[in-house]
Amino acid sequence: MRNTVLAAFLFLAPGVLWSDPLPSWAEGETKTQIVDFVDKVTDPENAAYVTPAERIAVFDNDGTLWAEQPVYFQFIFAMDRLAELAKEDPSILSSPTLKAAAQGDLATVLEGGHDALIEVVNATHAGLTVDAFQDAVAEWLDTARHPSTGLPYDQMTYQPMVELLRYLRDEGFKTYIVSGGGLHFMRVFTEEAYGIPPEQVLGTYSETTYDSSGDTPVIAKASGIVFVDDKEGKPINIERTIGRRPILVGGNSDGDFAMMEWTTAGDGARLGILVHHTDAEREWAYDRDSAIGRLVDGLDKGPDMGWVIVDMAQDWSRVYTGAN
User: Fold this and answer.
1) Percent above pLDDT 70 for the chain
2) Distance between CA 205 and CA 269 in Å, rounded?
3) What pTM did the predictor assign?
4) Is pLDDT at 8 greater than 50 in this prediction?
């Protein structure tokens, strides 16, 4: 019988050992539960064996695969872009919300709630072709730095989760992102950051238009949100787009609860992994009272559903790919 933990002590060749597939995960119950699950669903002799075609794993992005404080990184991109646009055309700042966003006044913008966030996103995303928008995202990722860590945003991916994604693919899983973040925004960096290609990224998407009047047909982003890939929208989008119920799911907030609940309610072996932000020293500690990444239902109900609750401070020996 295959066993990844024991295999770490077996020689592949003289003087060569198999390496630990999850080196940034501390030894303990959390790591053991993950490895044991992968072992049993990939062992043809185990009653819980799952064929490769059914080994689907889905993960939230913000707060699960990379950081999300003080606000979702896509929104920081939108505020930075708004400030640049306003230098060229101050008239774009046509409301108190847009003026506050351009000044970096995040607290004021957040007071406006969902509508304020959408207003800023529409002002900075709409009217661009998808290609031009993604070029702007790529340039921002190359130059912008997080206000607290000083790291490039795409170096604030979580090293333990990057290892987990790689480990799952090595064991025949197909890995997807299912996030409330913007579809076109995430597709810029997910392949390089996580090894997840654009076609395996599900997210929130806006209205788009097709224009063939020029030399080259283009698809452009327009105002208005078509689908919000959050809460109950996540399992709906998985069923609609992937067509299979996953057997493994990772999330970190109540926005992921429905996706995790639906995934782990299926027949056969299932695993839910909930990242709990407990590390105020290396990252941030937040859950029930946080405006970003609020986590209540997962903490209260997840253990009874058999979910693995990852204590970031205890279970991860390293946090970011770019530091510590």
Assistant:
1) 94
2) 32
3) 0.93
4) no
